[in-house]
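Sharing a chain and its predicted structure for anyone who wants a worked example. Both blocks are below, sequence first, tokens second.
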Amino acid sequence: MLYLVGENLDKTRAHYQAETGKIVQLMRGIYVDADADADANVLKHAIRIARYLYPRAYLSAASAILLAPTRDGRLFISGPRNQRTRIRALEIIQNAAPDHPSVASAIIDDGLGEFQTNVSSIRQRFLEAFRLRSEHAASIDEAR
């Protein structure tokens, strides 16, 4: 199971359970059960983790189409800045978003419950696909 401080676990309980070995910290505020497969949990809940870490970002490129990370574990988002974050098998690649992106809403169910997140609209994905030398553009291929 995945635990996010402030969402389904408070910080004092997280600290206590981490000290006693019941849960393992993956990153600040992100924990999994000690006996669980951390890589599988991270990939299964990738969008929830990205939304927790980057609340102002939205899914873009191939991730907006799949509503999941790619097969190689990359999750594409657009937000205020360019940056990369790696958590186990997951790599979150954030591209700088335009000032007024065209986004749509999507409902995600990852086993911990449903939540709503923003994704690039079809129009915005089309524009992302033509960004020069962009990893986001390269993620969209003819198979998707």
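Comments welcome. The first helix runs from residue 11 to 20.
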